[in-house]
Amino acid sequence: MLLVLWKKWVSASGFASRSPSENDPESIVERIHLGEAELRNELIVRYHPYIIKITSRFFRRYIDPQRDDAFSVALAAFDEAITRFEPASGRLFLSFAETVIRRRLVDYVRQESRHNGVIPYSSFDENEGDAPMNRIEVDQALDAYERAQSADERKQEIATFTEELAVYGITFADLVRLSPSHQDSRDSLLRLGTALARNESMVRYLKEKRQLPIKELCLAEAVSRKTAERHRKYLIAVSLIASGAYPYLQHYIGLDRRKEEVTS
């Protein structure tokens, strides 16, 4: 299964060949932090449609930026996200911005509830100009946007991961070639990679030395040195996914389910 997923990542929409661009929001936010303040307003204007969609999805109705106070709240939250975002974190800016927007909208709804009592659930028969937007149309529009946004976030996530792999001299082709063919072997390596990612000292060694902490891993997990060395690149890749801001990749290889099993 993991072999199929590696191949899917490589082939899907040219992910492996895509590299971060200076037009990516992460790069623009970094430039803003470095002093190019004029880019802030340009970025906000560029993502007006994104802010509208996130806000509309939150309220499950179309939010008119000209008359809905909620849009102003979301706009301020997006600006806050620009200030708070840490480009070096490896996270996707739009995902981070959505989190900030949703939190501020929750605060806004709570505040409005205290002032005005219970806010009635909004009707879905909204009018945008002369064109009525019924519930089905709104849901379809939001679903289509969410699918497109998720696809873009996956592309950016895999582009970032591809770049990080390159630092260790690893390519997706290596992972396809080295992926274990047996399920028990895959499960064992996922366990080892996840265990490494939970150990701060081993993660620090991996990222500072650009090498797998074989000795420490073998002692901590009672695995043979031969096994760790044979699957070095694979273990590095799994540990990078598990310890990094890669929610889609974590889901694809089952690390999110593994976390649930560990905490349950």
Number of domains: 2
Q: Count of helices?
A: 15
- Number of E-state strands: 2
Span of the ends, CA to CA: 25 Å
Task: Work out the oligomeric state of the chains in this entry.
Answer: single chain
The rough form would be described as elongated
Write a structural description.
- With 264 residues, the chain is mostly helical.
- It has two domains: 19-156, no CATH class; 180-263, no CATH class.
- Helices cover 71% and strands 2% of the residues.
- The chain is built from 15 helices and two strands.
- The chain has helices at residues 2-11, 25-33, 38-46, 48-59, 69-84, 93-116, 135-167, 172-178, 183-198, 200-209, 214-221, 225-230, 232-243, 247-252, 255-263, and strands spanning 126-128, 131-133.
- Strands 1-2 form a two-stranded antiparallel ribbon.
- The two termini are 25 Å apart.
- Mean pLDDT is 78; it is low at 9-20, 118-134 and 260-264.
List keywords for this structure.
71% helix; two-stranded antiparallel sheet; 264 residues; disordered C terminus; elongated; 2 domains; 15 helices
Task: Present the secondary structure layout.
Blueprint: H1 2-11, H2 25-33, H3 38-46, H4 48-59, H5 69-84, H6 93-116, E1 126-128, E2 131-133, H7 135-167, H8 172-178, H9 183-198, H10 200-209, H11 214-221, H12 225-230, H13 232-243, H14 247-252, H15 255-263
Antiparallel strand pairs: 1-2
Helix pairs in contact: 1-8, 2-3, 4-5, 4-6, 5-6, 9-13
